[in-house]
From TrEMBL:
UniProt KW rRNA processing keyword: no
Protein name: Proline iminopeptidase
GO biological process: proteolysis
Source organism (scientific name): Roseateles asaccharophilus
Classification lineage: Bacteria, Pseudomonadati, Pseudomonadota, Betaproteobacteria, Burkholderiales
Residues annotated as domain AB hydrolase-1: 31-255
Family: Belongs to the peptidase S33 family.
GO cellular component, one term: membrane
Alphabetical UniProt keywords: Hydrolase
Keyword Methyltransferase (UniProt): no
One Pfam match: Abhydrolase_1
Amino acid sequence: MRIDIGGGVRLFVDVQGPGLVPDGVRMREKPTLICMHGGPGFDHSAFKPGFDALADIAQIVYYDHRGHGRSDARPSEEWTLDTWADDIVRLSDALGIEKPIVLGQSFGGFVAQRYIARHPGHAAKVILSSTSHHMGLERKLDWFGRLGGPEARAAAEAFWSRPDPQTWAAYWSRCRSLYNTQPPLDPQAGERTLARTEILLHFVAHEKQGLDLLPGLARAACPVLVLTGDQDPVCPIEDAREIAAALPERWRHFACVQGAGHGTWRDKPQEAYAVLRNFLLA
C-alpha cells in the first residue's frame, strides 16, 4: 500500500504481523521495527523473507524510501539524507507509531545516523547495520583489493570516484560478489529489486563525497546497536568501530559477526538474528 506522509508524498509500505496480540486476559503490544533498505536506489525487498525470523517479537514495517522502489517518484532535490531522515518521523506520524525501533541497513544506516542527529528523542532504539559514516574511499579500496585483487580495486576506485552508468556497471559486475562471504541463499533476490540507478549515481556523485555523520551521533538519546561483519569491504569494520565510538557510552552497543560481510544475516543468519533478537528484547 502507499501511505501519504504529507505534501502529496506517498511511500510504499508493507506491514508484517499484528501490533497487538492476545496475551491471557489482555492484548499485548509488540514493538514496531521500521526497516530501512540500502542503496540508494534499491528497495525493501532484500529484507524478505529473512526478517520473518523476527516477526514473532516485533511488528515489522518495511518501506521504500522516498523516490525509491514502489514509492512515488520524486524530484532530485528531495534525494537528500535530511529529507529521507525526516521521512521516518513523517511515516511514523502517518501510521500512528510511537517510539519505533529503527533499523538502517547500509545506505539505510546513513539515513538512520542523520535521523539520530535530527530527531534524537524519536526512536525507542536504533540499529545501524553494515553502514559507514563517510566515503572512506581508501578503506574501501584496500578491502576490495584484498578480496578481489587489482581489478576489483580499480573498478571500485572508478565508480566511487567517477560515478556514471559505465563505472557503476563495471563495479557491480566485478565487486558485487565480494560483498558477502557466502553464496546467496536466494540467488534470485537481486532480480526482484526495483532499482533506480539515477538516485544511486546522484547520491554518490554529490552528498556521499563529503559525507561526515560522526558529529551528529553524539546526540543519540536511546540505545543504538552498531552491527557489522568483519569481512565487509564496502562498509568496513573500521567504520563501524568509529561509529560506535562516536555514540554516547550509555547508549552504545556493538556487535561484530565473524565471517560475515555486508548484511550480516546474509552470511551468518543464525548469529546475526540472535544479536538482533537480543537487542529487540532487551
